Amino acid sequence: MDATSILSPSRGRARARSYGLLPGPPMPTAIMYESDIQIRDLETPGPPNPILLSAFALLLTAQIGLTLLLLTIVLAKIQRSPAFYNFVFITWVSLPIYLLLFYTKQYQVLHVHLDICAVQAILKHGVDSAFVCALLMLALECWWSLKYGTYDIKMTRLRKNLILILPYAHFIAFSAAIALLGTMSNIYVTPQINVYVIVSYSFYCTLGNDLIGNIQAAEIALLVLATFFYEVRTGLLYRKMRKARMNMNINDKWAFSVFVRLSFCTLWQIIGLLNTASGLVVDFSNLTVLRDDISLFVLVTTPLMVLVIFSTQKDILMAWRFSWRETRSPESTLGSSTLETCELTSLHITFRVPDGSESIRDGGESV
Fold first, then answer.
1. For residue 171, is it within any domain?
2. Is 292:200 a contact under the CB 8 Å cutoff?
3. TM segments (predicted)?
4. Distance CA 16, CA 125 (A)
């Protein structure tokens, strides 16, 4: 999330403790100059900065890929849960926010304009919480659908509405808080408090306020832990279902794909939690440099990870394969009828048994 600057003797400059989407206690890393904000210090002065340009390249690649994925989902009418749509959309929205300095070419100047920095900081704080909340809703929806099915569920409409609304509620709450604190800094001028700052060795702005940063860091840590909890429960359910299908001689080739997707999401969450924990203990300069580099890597590769994980599902790949055809048969989209299909984020769990019939798990009922 927000950044904490510390003095690293090995580099002799302030380093950011975290790089967005990963929480850490904040401290300002730059100061306000009237209507401009001083840009981060660069280890290699003068453009281009290879690390900065590489980060932009990865984020731009993810933005293009996620745009194509969303278009494919809409045009090909790919069936997924509302939580899946929400998560991919919020990930896609987060990219232009983090790329704001790139689009406005402010990363090339000595001072970033205050208005641009303020807009980015406000939106960044909101989208960080919305992203993690949307991931939790996706894990919860996956577990719920697998355990209880998707038909005749009590309060189904309310549950779906909450899954859709909660990420945006987080976005509004934190964005409004950051905007309010930033506005108050113009009234009650306190040096280095409630001012928009550029994070050292990065490409985005944040708000220099310890309290709000720690609150958001704690909230995100709890959301990540809850996500991990439901992913573990989902994995245990898959394991039980796999044993049941093996006893029934039903194909389970879907299992490997599902667990690969779960493992990647879980890995990134564990890294985020470790980064959060490391930011709350005494700093060791040598470890700080490594932690910052890992945090930056996780930030710029997270959207790519989302793209790769959720664009490699079978029906989406088949939709891309036949995107230039005017008509597309259901068989070519869903694959062979002799194989089971069980997508991680589907609204239903469909098992295609060897004789060609289908059974839908719905609280013990089958059709």
1. yes
2. no
3. 51-76, 83-103, 129-150, 162-181, 211-233, 254-274, 294-312
4. 16
- pLDDT tens figures, 6-48: 223 333 333 333 334 433 333 333 334 345 554 444 444 455 5
DSSP letter, residue 12: T
DSSP string of 294-309, one letter each residue: HHHHHHHHHHHHHHHH
Integer Cα distance of 132 and 265 in angstroms = 11
> What CATH number is attached to the domain comprising 240?
1.20.1070.10
Distance CA 46, CA 61 (A): 24
Residue 306, domain extent:
6-360
Output the pTM of the full model.
0.73
Nearest to 238 by CA among 148, 147, 361: 147
1 within a domain of the structure (yes/no): no
Whether residue 288 lies inside any domain: the answer is yes
Q: What is the pLDDT of residue 162?
A: 87
What residue type is 311 in one-letter code? S
Non-local CB neighbours of 73 within 8 Å, separated by 6+ positions = 80, 85, 88, 316
Domains in the chain, number: 1
Per-residue confidence at 259, pLDDT binned at 50, 70, 90?
low
Question: In whole angstroms, what is the distance from residue 293 CA to residue 353 CA?
Answer: 48
Distance CA 338, CA 341 (A): 10
